[in-house]
């Protein structure tokens, strides 16, 4: 598994590099084909690769993305190394290790005898880090045809699984005022910057940590020079919610923002990108099953919610039981110290293999 992970990390694969994504897609197609999976390309660029095994009526969807946030060349800065039980490298933890775990689990179950009632579809996507625009329809279509979805994003700390995720919204608020000379004629102007500053205070006041509801104005820009009353200013807002109701309430509140200065116009763009992944009853049942398997294999598995979104948000929103965080244990997603705890790789593969091999026939 370490050798295969190092091989995948060596294929650098930023979301915005079609040629690099294509090279890795072809490698993954060969890998899946060699393992006896039936491989199809369901979307060309960004590539979406579908690999199927089994003919049973009970389908399980396995989701993994092979794009990373790292540019080509990052490997020279963060070389792939294995020391002290840890593998480092760009994209190793988020989430090439998850791909290796999924492949290995499928290999093991196939070798032991694939259950007759079961079929599994592994969907490998390449635009998760940029919102899953092209892959989302494929993910949702396959999820609707499946009994459950397993997502191979990194685990919670100490190999916990993720049964809920916050929903993620992205908005941009633009203020358009009236430019004027700051010295000669300031009263003719209407400052977009001043208006935006007031609105930012109102937006931050919508935060409600007790509800798990957060808004962050993470980027502001505006104005042209210090001696001009600013004509235009904009703010990028990140929104996190735990329920669809909160998402709708925040959307309404943002759309209701009105300018303090009537000479400034406000426009809001954006919306909810990933709906919240709420903990469905079927998801709780999946958690129970992996906990029983882990106990039998000699360790405990915790369960938790996280603030970041994944493609599991889309499938849970359709009402399909979705268990996330089945990838590797480690740390440092999107960070220079990104790493995988190697010991978690075979444990995760064994866990997923048992989950599939013992899948209920109903
Ligand atoms: Zn990821």
How is this structure best described in words?
The structure is a single chain. With 362 residues, the protein is of the alpha+beta class. The chain folds into two domains: 2-165 and 277-357, 3-Layer(aba) Sandwich (Aminopeptidase), CATH 3.40.630; 167-274, Alpha-Beta Plaits. 33% of the residues lie in helices and 27% in strands. It has ten helices and 18 strands. It has helices at residues 2-10, 18-34, 74-77, 92-112, 136-144, 192-204, 244-255, 281-296, 312-317, 344-357; strands at 38-43, 48-53, 58-65, 81-83, 86-88, 118-125, 148-151, 161-165, 167-176, 180-181, 214-222, 228-229, 232-241, 265-274, 303-306, 322-323, 330-331, 339-341. The strands form five sheets. It has a six-stranded mixed beta sheet, sandwiched between helices. A four-stranded antiparallel beta sheet has the order 4-5-18-17, with helices on one face. Strands 11-13-9-14 form a four-stranded antiparallel beta sheet, with helices on one face. β17 and β18 (339-341) form a beta hairpin. The model has no long low-confidence stretch (mean pLDDT 97). The structure holds zinc ion (ZN). Zinc ion is lined by residues 65, 94-95, 128, 153. Residues 65, 94-95, 128, 153 line the site of zinc ion.
